[in-house]
């Protein structure tokens, strides 16, 4: 299971980015995906989650109303649309998964990232003027 996160960059406060989490060598159809972020000197935190079907999602309170998670089964990709970005959103963002969708949901909501076994390398998001 290999995941690759991309789409990060430098953006001004109030700007937008769309992160992608792509899978190689397997289909994401049966996997839930969690997005996590880690800022320098801080613990990795759960940001958002989407179920395999896309019918269930979760957002951390700090991003609720600004971020939207979606998935495109045809492109085997999960997206995190990030709007109204703030300097405090600056972090490296990772997508992750595991065999059990419920374990991904719990890990994302509790920020227990060590419970998940499959990670992408991450993409840097920097929000600065």
The protein's oligomeric status is: single chain
Helix vs. strand class: mainly beta
What's the average pLDDT? 95
Number of strands: 11
**Low-confidence runs (pLDDT<50, min 5 residues)?**
none
**Alpha-carbon distance between the termini?**
37 Å
String of helices and strands: EEEEEEEEEHEE
Please bin the fraction of helical residues: under 10%
Rg value: 13 Å
Q: What profile does the largest beta sheet have?
A: 7 strands, mixed
Can you tell me the overall shape?
A: globular
Helix segment count? 1
Q: Bin the strand percentage.
A: 35-45%
Task: List descriptors.
129 residues, mainly beta, 7-stranded mixed sheet, 4-stranded antiparallel sheet, globular, 11 strands, 44% strand
Structural account:
The model has no long low-confidence stretch (mean pLDDT 95). The protein has 129 residues and is mainly beta. Helix content is 8%, strand content 44%. The protein has one helix at residues 101-110, and strands at 2-6, 9-11, 17-24, 33-38, 45-50, 57-59, 67-72, 77-82, 91-97, 118-119, 123-127. The strands form two sheets. Strands 2, 4, 5, 6, 9, 10 and 11 form a seven-stranded mixed sheet that branches. A four-stranded antiparallel sheet has the order 1-3-8-7, with no helix packed on it.
